[in-house]
Amino acid sequence: MSLVHIPAEEKRRVLEELADVKELFAARNWFPGTSGNLSMRVGEMDGERFHFAITASGKDKSKRTAEDFLIVDQAGRPAETTNLKPSAETLIHCEIYRLTGCGAVFHVHTVFNNLISEYYGEQGAVPLQGIELIKAFNIWEENAAIAVPVLPNYADISAIAKLVPGVLNEQVPGILLRNHGIYAWGRDAFEAKKHLEAFEFLFESVYRSLLLNK
Q1: Which residues of the sequence carry a binding annotation for Zn(2+) (predicted)?
Q2: What value, to the nearest 5°, has the Cα angle with vertex 74 and ends 69 and 79?
Q3: 107 known member of a binding site
């Protein structure tokens, strides 16, 4: 769908939802030093053509302004005239949307997701088993086990984006960058937020379990 055919009301709704999520996560200190990025798809997928709103690069995410977001296309290019620059990690969002058809992608940097991604970095995944909040991913079997992929944190974002198809698991709506942060996604902002909160709880649980078992 062309951006010109997407109603203005739809764009405003997406930007308002993103602003609300940004405010909530900023209050939790999930965007230290302007880090992290949030995005939501605008309109429907048209094959591999789509648009999404994403946080502008280098902004203080604890503030709410008219310049917090911009809309980009499936290649991460601004779809409207703007002086804003999309987040440096936009290409990773592009790949997640292309591969999953999701509605929102949230990326935050926290102490727990950094420590856990580094601890399990050489294994290439964080193993999680028997923790109640795995149910947040609609996995209901008893003593369920999942593995959250961990990708290397290259300076070249395009090199990271190329690795996403090889690790993406439709049952596990998240990918960690080693010593960097988590990308979590969902059908809409509500589900992406739910998944992100579940991942953060799971990472903190694993970290504290490791300390207890020392």
Answers
A1: 107, 109
A2: 50
A3: yes
Q: Which amino acid is at 116?
A: I
Q: Which amino acid is at 114?
A: N
DSSP the chain: --GGGS-HHHHHHHHHHHHHHHHHHHHTT-SGGG--EEEEEEEEEETTEEEEEEEBTT--TTS--TTSEEEEETTS-BSS--S--B-TTHHHHHHHHHHH--SEEEEE--HHHHHHHHHTGGGTEEEEES-GGGGGGT--STT-EEEEEEE---S-HHHHHTTHHHH-BTTB-EEEETTTEEEEEESSHHHHHHHHHHHHHHHHHHHHHHHHT-
